[in-house]
Amino acid sequence: MTKQEKAHAIHRILEDLYPTVPIPLDHTDPYTLLVAVLLSAQCTDVRVNQVTPQLWALAQRPEEMMAQSEEDIRAIIRPCGLSPRKSKAIKELSRILTEDYGGEVPQDWAALEALPGVGHKTAAVVMSQAFGVPAFPVDTHIHRLAYRWGLSSGKNVASTERDLKRLFPEESWNKLHLQIIFFGREYCPARGHRMRDCPICGTYGRKALLKAERE
């Protein structure tokens, strides 16, 4: 089986299991999604969704958020971790959006990636989920599964993103990255995973990993 054939088979499994996928982070517009994705770095989506209602009660628009102190923002987002860095980034990106973009999140890769606290993965989530632009956000979980399934070399998230974009049709990217995330949580966790019992790994997993598990 070629890698392309394997990708096609895996895609069919994910479509059967997750014909529809919700966006995991609660939000109301591109700005609240941007902030929620920033908060999700090294934090679970569940925890972010627990914290953001209080943050939106404080400020829900860039012009409102920039007027808040870093201390007040930090006090709310502390459960998400890295709160000093994240609170500074949220306040500063809110100022930039207000002063340079009329309070709106730009639908532009370079402009997004230039914002404080916003890297390529965060920009990709916003572009795909807020604006519907084809993107394939690759976090550590997708990176791990792509390697486990033999779809990528696993050297880094950038190379994994390139590999997955080559293997899957562009029109599937925005939904597919969410399908992989949901599958990883339900069937293919990082620890305590038995590959031979997994709906994907058991048939399409990397042979060396399956062999090591049997031994």
TrEMBL record:
This is Endonuclease III. The lineage of its organism: Bacteria, Pseudomonadati, Bacteroidota, Saprospiria, Saprospirales. One of its GO terms (biological process) is base-excision repair, AP site formation. Pfam families: HhH-GPD. The gene is nth. The keyword Lyase applies. Keywords: 4Fe-4S, DNA damage, DNA repair, DNA-binding, Endonuclease, Glycosidase, Hydrolase, Iron, Iron-sulfur, Lyase, Metal-binding, Nuclease. Coiled coil: none annotated. Signal peptide: none annotated. It comes from the Bacteria. Belongs to the Nth/MutY family. It comes from Neolewinella lacunae. GO terms for molecular function: 4 iron, 4 sulfur cluster binding; class I DNA-(apurinic or apyrimidinic site) endonuclease activity; DNA binding; DNA N-glycosylase activity; metal ion binding.
